[in-house]
Predict the structure.
Amino acid sequence: MKNTSTRLLLSCAAIGVAGGILFIVNAYIGGTVNAVIPMLYGLTLGVYFVPGALAQFLFRRGGVALLVAVLSGLVSAAFQPLGFGAALIALGIGAVQELPFLIGRYRHWPLWLFFAGAVFSGVILAIGMYRLVGSRDLDAVGAIVLVAGSVLSPVIFTGLAIVLGRALEATGVTRGLRKA
């Protein structure tokens, strides 16, 4: 932990709190979408990938996606229907986001690896959403839309996190926080 500064931890905490607020809003929007148009529910789930992807893009350090995702889940736990389950789901998402970079031992941070991880996460998410929602409530077309939305949503929101990360980098707020 000698390379972990207070500034890095506070930056992760700030992203985690903002992500938690995003999770709270998305919990109610996603719940409404699931109740009204369940086949579009997969499109709302990519929001949960934003804080971790943003932290990884900004800091290029191992563990930041996991840390930020768990903080986001904990912040949102008291204010959403899933309760502490939100933190557990966020823990899983953060762990899956870390996996592509962990395989490379956190030495390489190309953009395609962010998106490869998002696609992998999306496939896992699509399987879960099909088992949870699609197989019992939807016809074939609805299930296809749910699965496609569940795969595309993490990719789209990871891209948005990277765009946001570039904008934050341009302001200079992350100067000195990246691992050399």
In short: Residues 140-171 form the longest helix (32 residues).
